[in-house]
Amino acid sequence: MGGNIRIAIAGVGNCASSLVQGIQFYRERRDCEPVGLMHLDLGGYRPEDIEVVAAFDIDSRKVGRDLAKAVFAEPNCTEPFQRDLPETGVLVQMGPVLDGFAPHMAEHPKRRRCVPSDQTELSQPEVVQILRESGAEMLVNYLPVGSEAATRFYAECALEAGIGFINNIPVFIASDPVWAMRFEERGLPVIGDDIKSQLGATIVHRMLTDLFRRRGVRIDRTYQLNTGGNSDFLNMLDRKRLSSKKISKTEAVQSVAASRIEDDNIHVGPSDYVPWQNDNKVCFIRMEGTMFGEVPMNLELRLSVEDSPNSAGVAIDAIRCCRLALDRGQAGPLHAPAACFCKHPPRQYTDDEAYRLTEAFINGWVHRVENEDKSVDAGHKVPGSAL
Ligand SMILES: NC(=O)c1ccc[n+]([C@@H]2O[C@H](COP(=O)([O-])OP(=O)(O)OC[C@H]3O[C@@H](n4cnc5c(N)ncnc54)[C@H](O)[C@@H]3O)[C@@H](O)[C@H]2O)c1
């Protein structure tokens, strides 16, 4: 196996920047022992096998530029770890704006927010044609939170072009039964929704929640507060755009709790925009519980990470799993990779189970995964999950 994996990207923001940098970073370290990856080789594919063949954005500083330059254009602010990127020959194209630009952004300095281009927006047939002509095998969605219409637009384009779809954002596609069925019927794989980070707030909060469950400690109250200074956090100041993000992040924790935590007793979400933090995200978790003899306890944790590279390695694995599914003719939502890599998958598993099932998927034990899915359905259901 091996060979190029051709992807298209919608939204050339900080996350796409880290992904593009990461592909080059690991290409240049081909012969060293690489640090920071969950899988160097995944089913015969390495990170440097990924090639971006088409990209769409709406920002005047990105549209019309080579992808290698656009990923460093304002308002992208993630700290570069691979400054030298060879020209790709891929020019960022002007997608339709739809709801990708939040009006409150206009009140903030241009260097901090999206500045929509006045170039003519591509129509759906034009985007589909670009996807087809580029040879893209899957479309990776990196639009801002709240881009419901724009995400549906790109999902339609993927269906029309006959390519896979990886939905990294909290708009429900893979976890929406109607969309999932449409991908299945079209014979195409879909992974989503809302990518997890390598070591981010969600995975840490979930592991701790699972630990409380295993150790018999009842969770009485918990919060997860997040601050950051990138355009994703600026965009999320508009609370109306946040409803699916909040559901996605909250359900990621609820789904591994021993029993559902009352709504008033769990608060998980982006909490404030602090411009000087740029792409540094700081997360504060507090968990209050009751242990042996009904004795109370509490835990406080602070996590500081560069937000965008934190999810790029996970995206690299999701892309390679999508390619494996294409190689194998597997269609519809990829349950194990979705549960492993995303906060709001169609089926929630504990992280241990999701990891185990994903390794089985990668190794091609497809039938075993299907059987395991059934056994999970039959009795080993994760408490509170939506299997
Ligand atoms: N660790 C992480 O950073 C992480 C984790 C989970 C989910 N996500 C999600 O991934 C998404 C991308 O995050 P980011 O930090 O790169 O955000 P960003 O704001 O840096 O990038 C979004 C990009 O989309 C572009 N865009 C807006 N509307 C568009 C349209 N209609 N068509 C094409 N492009 C459009 C913007 O101009 C911008 O370049 C967000 O929804 C974020 O919540 C990120």
> Based on helices, strands and strand pairing, what is the structural class?
alpha/beta
Gross CATH architecture of the largest domain = 3-Layer(aba) Sandwich
- The CATH topology of the largest domain is Rossmann fold
CATH H-tier superfamily of the largest domain: NAD(P)-binding Rossmann-like Domain
Radius of gyration: 20 Å
Q: Summarize the biggest pleated sheet.
A: 7 strands, parallel
The residue-averaged pLDDT reads: 93
Number of domains: 2
Supply the number of helical segments: 12
Structure description:
The protein has 387 residues and is of the alpha/beta class. It folds into two domains: 5-197 and 309-341, Rossmann fold, CATH 3.40.50; 201-306, 2-Layer Sandwich (Dihydrodipicolinate Reductase, domain 2). Helices cover 36% and strands 19% of the residues. It is built from twelve helices and eleven strands. It has helices spanning 14-28, 67-70, 124-134, 148-161, 177-185, 201-214, 231-235, 243-254, 307-328, 335-341, 351-362, 366-378; strands at 5-10, 50-57, 92-94, 138-141, 164-167, 189-191, 218-228, 266-273, 280-291, 295-306, 332-333. Strands 3-2-1-4-5-6-11 form a seven-stranded parallel β-sheet, sandwiched between helices. Strands 8-7-9-10 form a four-stranded mixed β-sheet. Helix 1 links the parallel strand 1 (5-10) and strand 2. The longest helix has 22 residues, at 307-328. The protein is globular and about 65 Å long. The two termini are 33 Å apart. The model is unreliable at 367-387 (pLDDT under 50). The site of nicotinamide-adenine-dinucleotide has 38 residues, from helix 1, strand 2, helix 7 and helix 9. It comes from Thiohalomonas denitrificans. Residues 200-308 form the Myo-inositol-1-phosphate synthase GAPDH-like domain. Pfam families: Inos-1-P_synth (PF01658).
